[in-house]
Amino acid sequence: MDKLSLESRINAEIYNFSGMIGLYANDFKGNIIEINSRDKFETASTIKVFILAELYKQIYEKKISPNKILKYDKENYVIGSGILRDLDYSVEMTAKSFAILMIIISDNIATNILIDLLGIDNINNTCQDLGFKDTILHNKIDFEKHSKLGTTTPKDYGKFFELLYKKELWSKEISEEMIGIFKNQHYNTILTRDLPPYFLNSEDTGDEELISIASKSGSMDACRNDGGIVYTPYGGYVISIFTKEFVDNLYYNDHESYRFGGKISRLMFDQYMAFKGSFR
After folding, report:
1. What predicted TM-score, i.e. pTM, was given to this entire model?
2. Nearest CA-CA partner of 140 in 124, 155, 159
3. Helix count and strand count (H, E) for the chain
């Protein structure tokens, strides 16, 4: 094996990581980079992309209206990420609005309300139908009752975003709508960590925004994950980075999963840009 290949350089960068890192990346030019891509990882909030897919499947099949009104009641309360837990009960919004909260601020209450609406079996059957054979939602979010939320692999997660990039999730219009939601996601804990901020922020620089990300991250004690689509002037690529078995389960911005994951993301970005739209 070439000791200076992209895979070798990635392994050199993460040599000191205390746990396991899984990577799946596709440049859509025939180059796929995989490291532990078929290993199973706890999903944490990355499972929410598959819930969103099921919602839009049922919208596409006209089983549910995106404007269906749902209510947040006391029985929906759960701790964790999001804003609904800080609001009064009886908040009513459309199904689409709950879905937006589920993705862009990873709202756990919104997630559970949508799981009740869609059905766990339907979500899991759709994952199987789409070819995500190692992906499963085990239960609703309830940290007092369940230690696990979902299981997936970096490859399954990457494959989801491949379908989205090719606009093959239900329809071109629905895929574009979902991409728009993922682009507004607030918690880019790994993918954008070490990317040049200048290219990502046209509001502050006044220059053209050259890079955009459509992604969803997730963190629990057992994992720190991130994945999505990186759009550049040369085209887009999919990247999925999952971590587990690290020694420190505390949550803070400089956690080793974020640091080492960020290094991988920057390596992939630089490689893609150097070859003007390809990993090789």
Report:
1. 0.95
2. 124
3. 10, 10
| Residue reference for tokens 């070859």 | 275
3-state secondary structure of 72: strand
Three-state SS at 158: helix
The closest of 139, 146, 117, 176 to 47, measured between CA atoms, is: 139
Q: Write the DSSP symbol of residue 88.
A: P
- DSSP for 169-183, written as a single string: SS-HHHHHHHHHHHH
- Cβ–Cβ contacts within 10 Å for residue 75, how many? 9
Single-letter amino acid code for the residue at 231: Y
Q: Are 23 and 241 in contact (CB under 8 A)?
A: yes
The first and second tokens of residue 104, run together, are 């862009």
**pLDDT, one tens digit for every residue, the chain (280 residues):** 588 889 999 999 999 999 999 999 999 999 999 999 999 999 999 999 999 999 999 999 999 999 999 999 988 898 888 899 988 899 999 999 999 999 999 999 999 999 999 999 999 999 999 999 999 999 999 877 877 899 999 999 999 999 999 999 999 999 999 999 999 999 888 999 999 888 887 667 777 788 999 999 999 998 999 999 999 999 999 999 999 999 999 988 899 999 999 999 999 999 999 999 999 9
Please, which contacts does 131-137 make with residues 24 or more away whose CB atoms are closer than 8 Å? 131/159, 132/50, 132/156, 132/159, 132/160, 134/38, 134/40, 135/43, 135/47, 135/50, 137/47, 137/50, 137/51
